[in-house]
Every structure is written in structure tokens, then in C-alpha cells.
């Protein structure tokens, strides 16, 4: 920004050396794509449930896109010399930095907000809730337990679920605990760290009938 202000006040600058920038940008794009692929592969191996790897993959792709944009911009900058924009060529690098800051300043704040959201133990995303319930409901139904309500939270990679169940048949306490443990074991295929709490409650329909 200081360079642009100095340029606006009349200070003259030598045009930047464009020759080495495109090869450098090409190298950076290749490195960023390699990192993005590595993060994506690790994310898949973790069951597609690691928010940090997902963010790192996106960051690598964004960095690659920025590097590609810088390379193309510097490659085309000399073509501006005979045009009305020719006087701006000496500060092309500063202009690109300002443009990149304006385009990317929003992402770090959103990522930081997301991390605080997860660390505070907020309600899990709908995708996480749907995946957990789709896996839990049939399993619990076979054990004679009907899920009537739920509260699912996510803290980093950890998923904590309180499932309010209504027994549709007689269930012994030992069977109840065994069902919960078995359910946690099955869900670890989807979520590396998961805690299930089964809370017995009355069926809402029966409750309304009684009232």
C-alpha cells in the first residue's frame, strides 16, 4: 500500500522483473496442487470427517489459484505498456498484492469463526446429524428402541450425541448399555471420536394422548 501511495505522490519506480515470475508461479501451483491432493487423501482416510484437513485442502487450492493468477498477471503486464494503463506497470506487483488481500481477507475470518464454533461445542452440521441418525435409527429399532428426539454436538473431531429413545418392547438395563456400546462401535466407522448417550423418554404421541 505504501508503494502505491508513494507512486500516487509522484515517486517513480523501476518496472518489476517479470521474467522469473511465471516459472516461479508454475512451481508454486504444482506444489499447492500436490499439498491439496495430500490433504484430500488424508481427509478421505479419516472418514471425510476431519475439518482441519478439509480447511487445509481448501487453503492449498486457494494458494494455488492465487499463484496462478499472479503468474498470468505478470506474464500479461508487459502488454499493458503501449496502452493507457502503461504508467501503472511499474507498480503492478503492489496492485496485485492489494487485489489479493481484498479477495482473500474474508476467508481467514470465516475459518477462525468456524474453529471457535467447533471448540465451543455447537450443534453439529446437518450433514453430520443426518449421517449419524441414518446409521443409528435402524440399529436401535432392531433393539426395540425408537428415536423420538436428539441433541448432537461437535467439538473439533469429536461428535457427542444424546438420543432420546422410547422402548417399544421390554429392554433390560444390561441390553440397553450393550446396545449403546455397540452403536458407538459402529459409528466409529464414520466418526473417529464419538460418544452416544441413550436417554429413555416417553413417545410424544403417547404423551399427548395421556394429557
Please, could you describe this protein's structure?
With 211 residues, the protein is an alpha+beta fold. Helices cover 59% and strands 14% of the residues. The protein has 2 domains: 1-120, no CATH class; 126-200, 2-Layer Sandwich (Alpha-Beta Plaits). The chain is built from 8 helices and 3 strands. It has a 3-stranded mixed β-sheet with strand order 1-2-3. A hairpin with a 2-residue loop joins β1 and β2 (158-167). α2 (21-45) packs antiparallel against α3, α3 runs antiparallel to α4 and α6 (126-142) crosses α7. The mean pLDDT is 80.
Strand-pairing-aware structural class: alpha+beta
Give the total of beta strands: 3
Radius of gyration: 28 Å
Q: Secondary-structure element sequence?
A: HHHHHHEEHEH
Main β-sheet, in a few words? 3 strands, mixed
Determine the strand fraction and express it as a percent band.
5-15%
Trace the largest sheet across and list its strands.
1-2-3
What is the strand and helix layout of this fold?
Elements: H1 2-8, H2 21-45, H3 51-76, H4 92-104, H5 106-119, H6 126-142, E1 145-155, E2 158-167, H7 173-187, E3 193-200, H8 204-210
Parallel strand pairs: 2-3
Antiparallel strand pairs: 1-2
Helix pairs in contact: 2-3, 3-4, 6-7
Amino acid at each position: 500500500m505504501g508503494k502505491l501511495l508513494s507512486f500516487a505522490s509522484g515517486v517513480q519506480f523501476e518496472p518489476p522483473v517479470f521474467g522469473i515470475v511465471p516459472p516461479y508461479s508454475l512451481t508454486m501451483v504444482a506444489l499447492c496442487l500436490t499439498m491439496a491432493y495430500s490433504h484430500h487423501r488424508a481427509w478421505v482416510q479419516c472418514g471425510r470427517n476431519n475439518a482441519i484437513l478439509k480447511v487445509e485442502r481448501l487453503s492449498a487450492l486457494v494458494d494455488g489459484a492465487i499463484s496462478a493468477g499472479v503468474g498470468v498477471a505478470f506474464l500479461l503486464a508487459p502488454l499493458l505498456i503501449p496502452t493507457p494503463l502503461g504508467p501503472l506497470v511499474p507498480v503492478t506487483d503492489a496492485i496485485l498484492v492489494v487485489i489479493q488481500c481484498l479477495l482473500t481477507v474474508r476467508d481467514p475470518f470465516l475459518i477462525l469463526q468456524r474453529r471457535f464454533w467447533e471448540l465451543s461445542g455447537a450443534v453439529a452440521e446437518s450433514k453430520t446429524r443426518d449421517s449419524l441418525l441414518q446409521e443409528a435409527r435402524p440399529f436401535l429399532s432392531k433393539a426395540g428402541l425408537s428415536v423420538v428426539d436428539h441433541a448432537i454436538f461437535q467439538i473439533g473431531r469429536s461428535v457427542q450425541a444424546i438420543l432420546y429413545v422410547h422402548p417399544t418392547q421390554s429392554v433390560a438395563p444390561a441390553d440397553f448399555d450393550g446396545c449403546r456400546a455397540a452403536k458407538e462401535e459402529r459409528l466409529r466407522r464414520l466418526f473417529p471420536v464419538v460418544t452416544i448417550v441413550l436417554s429413555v423418554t416417553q413417545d410424544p404421541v403417547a404423551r399427548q394422548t395421556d394429557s
